[in-house]
Amino acid sequence: MTASHDEDTPLLGADAADRASIRSASILKPPTESDAEDGPSSPPEFGNIEDDVLPEESVLGRNIDWKSAYIIAISRVIGSGIFAVPGVILTSVGSIGLSLLLWILGAVVVACGLAVSLEYGCMLPRSGGDKVYLEFTYPWPRYFASTMIAVQAVLLGFTASNCIIFSQYVHFVFDFEPRDFSKKSLAVALLTVITIIHGVWYRAGIRIQNFLGWIKVGLVVFMVFAALYVVIFRPEQKDLEDKPVGLKSWEGLWEGSDWNLGTLATSLFKVFYSYAGLSNLNNVMNEVKDPVRTLRSVSLTALVTACFLYLLANLAYFAVVPIEDIKRSGQLVSALFFERVFGPNVGKRFLPLAVALSAGGNVMVVTFALARLNQEIARAGFLPFSRLLSSSKPFNAPLGGLIVHYIPSVLVIVLPPSSEVYSFILEVEGYPGQVFAVATSIGLLWLRYKRPDLKRPFKAWIPAVVFRILLCFALLAAPFFPPSHPKPGGLFYATYAIVGVGILLFGALYWLVWTVILPKLGRYRLEEKQEVLDDGTAITVLTRVPEAE
How far is 133 from 130, CA to CA, in rounded Å? Predict the structure, then answer.
């Protein structure tokens, strides 16, 4: 991964840049009286693919500085993953050694993926993330990339997992009976409150998520120092019968390992989920100050921070909590950690409550970013009621994108059985993501060859991109290998992969019907028409133009 320090402004060649800048000058400017006097103004070119190389400022302004950008990235990463996933992974793979190996391998793969996102993000500094990158890379078949991203964002762009972790930890802290209805009700209540905050009080939402983000970073650092205290000073734990068992040999580190390919794949998906969010900033680039420079420095800083804290947190769990207790704990491994270190009062009440707040902060930043992605999809005309969903009225916030995010999140919280919902969500989110990872990685290599004229302030290391492609293909095939120890009475081992493939096939079928079959039967073609809403938001409206006889 290399960065070109003299290329902070991502433009095409000089002539192309001049043409694109002239077109984009009117992107976010509603018509004025002077325009009316001078005659019709040039139509905005929001939908023009070549304009994606130019920065675009949101009608909300650029309110995200470096600190807020760092929190958007790191607070998305440090969510329920580090507090819940280690116990789930250890249960699946069976040994400490294999668990740590997967965390390290996952960090390497995530770094390769981040390199791809950074090259794209610095080259095409627009809000929307993969939507912008795939549309630019694959303009044909027409509307296909946009449709697939829209289906994936709407059907899989939920933040249910952290709502569930918040609810579980609150129940644990206050000794509530963990009934299915109460856990789901609290999870839905959290999501509802956060949606209202981001939809009504835009700036207050940013301040709250910044505050909660720093709490999360501090909590993980505190965990690491607490574990060091236990290991070095070995305080008496009188009330606890089981104590951590030290590993006396290298073989003991790998005892009980399950090397089944399907098991490794599902565990890696959970690791990827824990690191998800390093490219969160790519979704809100229109609101970031100095977007290219900020994206580059924030993403790399967040990557180093996350890898360091995750590895230390896993070591802290293994040093304090007995292995069998971790396997039985499910998503409550950090609660057991705090209880063993600080006792049943502080350890069981105060600190797990901080974990719940951490999960809530993660829901805030995910909701913040995905609402912008949904708004970009609506601006491109790929959602019904696109004018309404694209607008920032009435509270100068993306309320439409928040509603699109809210509905599938609530359904995912409420419908599946509570016992398996967390792991299932992580897996079903991760599987289709590998398809888009392959598409962006191959597309990056294609653009290097096809579009050498594009300025690239950051360049990904080619072997890292190739490694990511190969591993993605392996992960796409792995779920269909039966596990060594299937759970009796559980879901079919490849259910999440089948659901993921089904969602992708639904997207392809929707595109085929909407853009090919219906236009042929109705004898019309789809054409893009640019409009500017009252609040200054530029949108694309897809209109039906009758074919000439």
Answer: 5
DSSP 201-222: -HHHHHHHHHHHHHHHHHHHHH
Strand, coil or helix: what is 39? coil
Tokens of 300: 């790399």
What's the token pair of residue 178? 């963990």
CA dist., res. 345 & res. 350, Å (int): 8
Number of Cβ atoms within 10 Å of the Cβ of 55: 18
Q: Mention every residue, 6+ apart, whose C-beta is less than 8 A from residue 323.
A: 90, 96, 244, 245
Q: What is the pTM of this model?
A: 0.73
What residues have CB less than 8 Å from 112, skipping those under 6 apart? 460, 464, 465, 467, 468
Cβ burial 295-330 (10 Å sphere, 16+ → b, else e): bbebbbebbebbbebbebbbbbbbebbbbebbbebe
Please name every residue paired with 524 in a beta bridge, in sequence order, or none if there are none.
546
Cα–Cα distance, 395 to 109 (Å, whole number): 40
Phi and psi torsions of 540, nearest 5°? -115, 130
Q: What is the pLDDT of residues 81-129, one digit of tens each?
A: 677 788 888 888 888 889 999 999 988 988 999 999 999 999 998 888 8
DSSP lists the bridge partners of residue 64 as 288
Pick from 299, 271, 270: nearest CA to 283: 299
- Per residue in 301-359, pLDDT (tens digit) is 999 988 888 888 888 888 888 888 888 776 677 778 887 887 777 777 777 787 788 88
Chain position carrying tokens 């995905």: 370
Q: Distance between CA 213 and CA 294 in Å, rounded?
A: 18
Question: Is residue 527 helix, strand or coil?
Answer: strand
Cis previous bond, 394, omega within 30: yes
| Residue where the block lists tokens 């050498």 | 452
